[in-house]
Design brief:
The complex is a heterotrimer of chains A (about 100), B (about 100) and C (about 280). With about 100 residues, chain B is mainly α. Chain B is built from four helices and no strands. The radius of gyration of chain B is 20 Å and the shape is flat. The termini of chain C are far apart. The chains are: A mainly beta (about 100), B mainly alpha (about 100), C mainly alpha (about 280).
Chain lengths: ~100, ~100, ~280
């Protein structure tokens, strides 16, 4: 199955710019379906970006983040050709991760 | 002619239609039915607010609030009539604003 | 006889046809329409009209451009491709129902079927394909049909819209019907499509920025931030009608198909950019 994470990372003058789109329903647990039943909460709890085994970015998400979150961030210390690992874990215990090479 | 008698006679005659109308339920049915059929007559030019008022009228009637039901039905009728007028006017009015006619 | 005809044609060409006599042809309508918008927005290059408000509002354009790296409809298009390529229970695929296997044909929709005497939109063709192959039709406004339509549109990126109104009285009637719908005021708020998109593009209506009619169908199906998902053109028609307190018509009803026919014809020559994002 295709990864839920699409990512692009570009390095310029020592700063790596990363953009990612993550496929996830991010249900808050407050919304009801058309039959009147609450759609259970289902959201990413933590998203992590790591480089050379070190976390460069950690996001503690929750029900306030909307569906298919888009993320953009910048960090120093990486260079072109390096590999990054982006991973997430949600409140149901499911997880996914992907790697990307910095362009 | 005896003026006072005439006056009484006229006022009696005028009051008869009111008496013949019967109770509030029948009034409501008449207005509601008229509002519905006028709303239908608007065809593709029906207004959402007319439907809202019709629904409100029906639910008020169902729960026994006859005053509100009648008020909603009357509003629905008025809105339906306006939407029919719109449909009729727009039959040709659109030509005035169309580009390339 | 021929001499008389030639003289008449020459006279006709020499005289400006008075409005009262002119049943202006669709092509004449379109040219006048393009001229109208060019005059209204002289700094917008013709192709840019397909970007609607982003061609007119700098701030919104910047936000949109920064989203283009990862447009929110990406997943839906991938899903759409999967749905498009998956065979039906009988083994056939959508490709069997369309010209060129359904690839790179979006710019030809909607078209007028002179045998059935009706406008065929892309979504209608998708569902007719399903029914012809023993499958249940999809819902019209969102979900799978929007994803499939989005995938098919993505294979036509950049192709110029090419709607035809054949010299056929039924086709012309459908076009005229769509044109009439477009310019007729409706709803308690008494607005026509033209009230906003012909008379007031470039202005704000509450928190929405109005786009001009020219180029609008090119970016459908559209991912609206408001919906959080893709929606078809008829979903938008229904939404707009509802906004002016006019009872929306059913998606893919004759009226909405005729409206789509007229509206898309007006955008002939502009590139397909669907699916796209909008607020």
């Amino acid at each position: 199955m295709a990864s839920s994470i699409r990512v692009r990372a570009v390095e310029n003058n020592g700063v790596t710019s990363l953009k990612a789109l993550v496929r996830h329903p991010m249900d808050s647990g407050f919304v009801k379906d058309s039959a009147g039943n609450v759609i259970p909460a289902h959201f990413i709890k933590v998203l992590t970006i790591s480089h050379n085994g070190k976390n460069v970015f950690v996001a503690n998400w929750g029900p306030a983040v909307s569906k298919d979150p888009f993320l953009e961030c910048r960090f120093k210390g990486a260079k072109k050709g390096d590999e990054l690992t982006i991973s997430w874990i949600d409140n149901e215990g499911a997880s996914d991760s992907t790697t990307a090479t910095i362009a | 002619m005896n003026k006072p008698l005439l006056a009484i006679g006229i006022s009696l005659a005028l009051s008869v239609p009111l008496a013949a109308q019967g109770g509030p339920k029948e009034d409501f049915q008449e207005v509601y039915a008229k509002a519905q059929s006028t709303h239908q007559d608007a065809g593709n030019f029906q207004w959402t607010i007319t439907s809202d008022r019709l629904k409100a009228a029906k639910s008020a009637a169902d729960s026994g609030d006859h005053e509100k039901a009648m008020a909603m039905a009357k509003e629905a009728l008025k809105l339906a009539e306006e939407s029919v007028a719109q449909r009729k006017k727009q039959k040709e009015a659109w030509r005035q604003v169309a580009i390339g006619n | 006889m021929l001499k008389a005809k030639v003289i008449l044609v020459a006279l006709g060409a020499a005289l400006a046809v008075p409005q009262a006599l002119a049943g202006a042809s669709p092509e004449e309508d379109r040219k006048e329409s393009v001229e109208y918008f060019k005059q209204m927005f002289p700094d917008v290059p013709f192709e840019e009209f397909v970007n609607g408000q982003y061609a007119l509002n700098e701030d919104r354009r910047k936000q949109w451009e920064s989203m283009q790296d990862f447009p929110p409809y990406e997943f839906a298009v991938a899903e759409g491709q999967e749905l498009f390529e998956t065979p039906f229970a009988n083994g056939k695929t959508y490709a069997s129902c369309f010209e060129n296997g359904g690839i790179g044909i979006r710019q030809n929709y909607p078209y007028f079927d002179t045998e059935k005497n009706e406008v065929i939109t892309l979504e209608l063709a998708i569902n007719r394909c399903r029914e012809a192959n023993g499958e249940e039709p999809l819902k019209w406004k969102k979900g799978a049909i929007a994803s499939i339509s989005a995938y098919m549109a993505s294979t036509s990126q950049g192709k110029p819209i090419n709607i035809k109104v054949p010299d056929d009285p039924e086709a012309l009637a459908a076009y005229q019907d769509g044109k009439k719908f477009y310019y007729s005021r409706r709803g308690q708020l008494n607005f026509s499509c033209a009230s906003c998109h012909v008379q007031n593009p470039g202005k704000w209506i509450r928190a929405d920025f109005l786009s001009p009619a020219l180029g609008q169908p090119a970016n459908f199906p559209v991912h609206r931030a408001k919906w959080g998902e893709l929606g078809t053109l008829h979903r938008r028609f229904a939404g707009c009608n509802n906004n002016v307190r006019a009872e929306p018509l059913p998606a893919q009803s004759e009226e909405y198909r005729n409206l789509e026919y007229f509206l898309t014809y007006m955008s002939n020559g502009l590139p397909v950019v669907g699916p796209a994002t909008r607020p």
